[in-house]
Write a structure and sequence with these properties.
Subunit structure: Component of the pre-66S ribosomal particle.
Structural class: mainly beta
Number of strands: 11
CATH architecture of one domain: Beta Barrel
Strand order of the largest sheet: 1-2-3-4
Organism: Acaulospora morrowiae
Protein name: Ribosome biogenesis protein NSA1
Largest sheet: 4 strands, antiparallel
Family: Belongs to the NSA1 family.
CATH class of one domain: Mainly Beta
InterPro entries: WD40/YVTN_repeat-like_dom_sf, WD40_repeat_dom_sf, WDR74/Nsa1
Number of helices: 0
Length: about 150
């Protein structure tokens, strides 16, 4: 393709799947959401998958995920970066949880949902999480209260 400045544009980077499983079978991929980890560094991305996985890619390092962990039992619907070490995600049954990127462990869970959360946003001052979902409600949660 050709951009407005008449320079050729094209594929800059493409991800590679994780290595085959213990039976040497290809691990399935079904990405449901993708976010950049920070606005200033666009080389780090986080993805959520239908197979309840969160993967972090660093385009400077390699094409395979630098971090890959399975989270919960249900597919990831939406995710957002709370701070560089925290990812907040929602699943198909209305759970909204925050996970520590360094350990892959769940830090806390947000309560009060009765349906799938379809979109989220984070406000930094005061730290709060805004969610909307299939239950037709917009909710604002304090981030420090998780």
């Amino acid at each position: 393709t050709v951009a407005k400045n008449k320079k050729e544009t094209g594929l800059v980077w493409s991800a590679k799947n994780v290595r085959n499983d213990f039976l040497d079978l290809r691990v399935p991929v079904w990405i449901t959401d993708l976010q950049f980890i920070s606005d200033s560094d666009t080389t780090k991305l986080v993805i959520g998958s239908k197979y309840h996985q969160i993967r972090i890619y660093d385009t400077k390092v390699k094409r395979r995920p630098v971090l890959d962990f399975s989270i919960g039992d249900h597919p990831v619907v939406s995710l957002i970066v709370g701070d560089p070490n925290q990812i907040i995600f929602s699943d198909t049954v209305g759970n909204v949880s925050s996970v520590d990127v360094r350990t892959g462990k769940t830090i806390g869970q947000f309560k009060g949902f009765s349906g799938t959360i379809t979109n989220m946003a984070v406000n930094t001052a005061p730290p709060s999480l805004v969610t909307v979902g299939m239950d037709r409600f917009l909710r604002v949660h304090e981030m420090d209260a998780t």
